[in-house]
Amino acid sequence: MDPEELEFIGERVSIGIIPNFNFDAIHLIAGTVGPFKAGLPLHIPLWLAIHLRKQQKCRIVPPSWMDRDILEDKKEEEKRVPNFTSMPCDQYMIVSKLLFSCASEDIPSIEEIKTFIKDIYDIRQAKLRTAIDSLFIGKKQLDGTTQVSFTNLTMFEIHTVRSFLPYASDLIARLERVCQQHTSNTNDTVHSNSFFSSSSGY
Question: Structure pTM?
Answer without folding.
Answer: 0.75
